[in-house]
Amino acid sequence: MSETESVDSLQKPADPSRRRLLTAATGVLGAAGVAAAAWPFVSTLQPSARARIVGAPVEVFIGNLEPGQLARVQWRGSTIGIMRRTDRMLSQLEGLNARLRDPDSDNANQQPPYAQNLYRSIRPEILVLNIHCTHLGCVPQVLPEVGPQPFDANWRGGFFCPCHRSTFDLAGRVFSGVPAIANLLVPPHSFIDDDHVIIGVDPEGAA
User: Fold this and answer.
1) What domain range includes position 73?
2) Is residue 86, in this structure, part of any structural domain at all?
3) Do residues 57 and 200 make contact, with C-beta atoms less than 8 angstroms apart?
4) Do residues 91 and 167 both lie within one domain?
5) What 3-state class would DSSP assign to 49?
6) DSSP assignment of 6-44, as one string?
7) What's the number of domains the chain is made of?
8) Is the pLDDT of residue 28 over 80?
9) Quick check: pTM over 0.85?
10) CA distances from 181 to 13, 101, 128, 202, 206 (A)
11) Which has the closest alpha carbon to 202: 79, 116, 113?
12) Residue 140 CB partners (closer than 8 Å, separation 6+)
């Protein structure tokens, strides 16, 4: 008997049942591996909770909003500012018409009819404003204090966009001679009570 034949004769014959078991186990592990690899991609196809509510009204508690303070919330992918204006802030809105591009908010696309007034709001002290600059969409800085600024020696408080230096007053009205040509937008909104405003819902009976 040759050396090769003696070695072969010592090997045990293959067990068909064991082979089938190993094949099945390999198949299960392979399927599990594919499923594990696919899970992150499948999960990304499921809409997030945030995505499901995009466009839905947003209720905001403003009971703790201090005078002069601006709160920010997200609605339809935009930053909405809610400011509790002081009497001094409101008084600064008067006498600016000669410096503003659209002082009377004549462009109806800039605000709902119930906000087409000097204060551009339902309640004078509560300003609800989309605070994306109407030039290229940057979010302006809030500079409420009256006093000379590098961009305006007669600044009376408002919003300054650092991207391209557009300026708006404390009602979101755009100044003349800046890149932005439209006032900041006032979104639809209404008040549930004194302490809650809802963004995205017009007041009952509003046109």
Assistant:
1) 58-199
2) yes
3) yes
4) yes
5) helix
6) HHHHHSPPP-HHHHHHHHHHHHHHHHHHHHHHHHHHHHH
7) 2
8) no
9) no
10) 88, 7, 20, 26, 27
11) 113
12) 131, 133, 159, 160, 161, 162, 166, 168
